[in-house]
Automatic annotation (TrEMBL):
The active site is at H52 (gmp-histidine intermediate). The keyword Nucleotidyltransferase applies. It is an enzyme of class 2 (transferase). GTP binds at residues 11-18, 36-38, 53-56, 64, 86. This is Bifunctional adenosylcobalamin biosynthesis protein. Pathway: Cofactor biosynthesis; adenosylcobalamin biosynthesis; adenosylcobalamin from cob(II)yrinate a,c-diamide: step 6/7; Cofactor biosynthesis; adenosylcobalamin biosynthesis; adenosylcobalamin from cob(II)yrinate a,c-diamide: step 5/7. Its EC number is 2.7.1.156, 2.7.7.62. One of its GO terms (molecular function) is adenosylcobinamide kinase activity.
Length: 172
């Protein structure tokens, strides 16, 4: 893997996408950075975050950035580094909860991805494969996530879809 490239990894919950993403970073041999966008809104989420940290171990530098994703990516960008972002859908949730300008935030990320010097591996949940959500906020979330995925897929060098732990290469 070259340093200056990017991969978007999509899949459903518990599909194996994070494990696949982590392995890509490990296989790169580059300095490992993990940008976590999740927030611990409750004890169950706090336990999930703690388990993810324990699973990764001490060979990763973790950056917890629920909102300023692009700022964090810019701050740690550099050759010889691999940066895993997990995940875009949690970032979308955080942006919605803070009533941020989704168009501007998404455009900033889409502009950063192809310019990054670090190897970027970006994880997100594919949420558009199920039934139409029954409430406005959930529909807006699904729509925001779908638009963001299209934008990042357009600028990423590689795109994978993961199902049942199996990767399907869609681009690259």
């Amino acid at each position: 893997m070259t340093t200056a490239s990017s991969t978007l990894i999509l899949g459903g919950a518990r599909s194996g996408k994070s494990r696949f993403a982590e392995q890509r970073v490990i296989d790169s041999g580059l300095e490992r950075h993990y940008v976590a966008t999740g927030r611990a809104w409750d004890e169950e989420m706090r336990a999930r975050i703690d388990q993810h940290k324990a699973d990764r171990g001490d060979l990763w530098t973790t950056h917890e950035k629920p909102l300023d994703l692009v700022g964090q990516l810019a701050a740690i960008d550099g050759e010889g580094r691999a940066v895993l972002v997990d995940c875009l859908t949690l970032w979308v949730t955080n942006l919605m909860m803070e009533e941020r300008d989704m168009t501007a935030e998404f455009a900033a990320l889409a502009a950063h991805v192809p310019r990054a010097k670090a190897r970027l591996v970006i994880v997100s949940n594919e949420v558009g494969l199920g039934i139409v959500p029954d409430n406005r906020m959930a529909r807006e979330f699904r729509d925001h996530a779908g638009r963001l995925h299209q934008m990042i897929a357009a600028v990423a060098a590689d795109v994978y879809f993961i199902a049942a732990g199996l990767p399907l290469k869609m681009k690259g």
